[in-house]
Structure formats: C-alpha cells, structure tokens
Specification:
There is one protein chain. The chain folds into 2 domains: about 30 residues; about 70 residues, no CATH class. Helices cover about 50% and strands about 5% of the residues. It has a two-stranded parallel sheet with strand order 1-2. The chain is globular. The relative contact order is 0.10.
Length: about 100
C-alpha cells in the first residue's frame, strides 16, 4: 500500500508542517525560486550522474547564496557548482576534503 494513504503519513505530515512553521521558518526565509530564469543547459549538465531535483536545488542554492543541508550522496557527484553543504554523509565529506 502507498505510504501516503496510511494514517501514519498524515500524522507525520502534520508534524513536519509544525516543525516548518514553528522552528525552520524562525531561522530561514522563504524564497521564490526563479525557475524561469535558470539556464536549462546548466540545469541538465551532469544530469547523467544525478537527478533533476538535486541539480535544481544546487543551482537554486547557488543563486541565492544559501547552503544545502542533506545526506544525499548525489551531491558529492555534482561538482561544478561550489556550494557549502552541511552533511554527515561520508561520500560528500570525502569529496569536500579533496577540493
């Protein structure tokens, strides 16, 4: 069964909403993404080694001069956009030591 159809999903989604509203948004700002202004050639460069969302978030963070908090190892592969990444992921950490 699809997890999103389960009652636990609804409960967890409400918990996440509360965390976003009461904790994250007291420390972070909401932004409009400016997708229409992103260079599509840049967006799809290196697409064979990562997925669209990872590259999109990396480009958005670079544009806004933000940091990325993630455990997604794909960010270790996306090397052409130097962005600060906060992580405990060993793959990403080893890449940052090499640069």
């Amino acid at each position: 069964m699809d997890f999103r159809k389960k009652e636990i999903y609804k409960k967890k989604a409400l918990e996440v909403k509360g965390i976003v509203q009461k904790q994250i948004l007291t420390l972070a700002e909401r932004i409009d993404d400016g997708f229409s202004k992103l260079d599509l050639d840049d967006l799809f460069e290196e697409i064979e080694v990562s997925d669209f969302n990872d590259k999109y978030h990396l480009m958005l963070a670079a544009k806004e001069e933000h940091k990325i908090v993630t455990d997604d190892g794909d960010f270790a592969i996306l090397s052409k956009i130097p962005i600060p990444i906060i992580t405990a992921n060993r793959k990403i950490l080893s890449r940052s030591r090499k640069n």
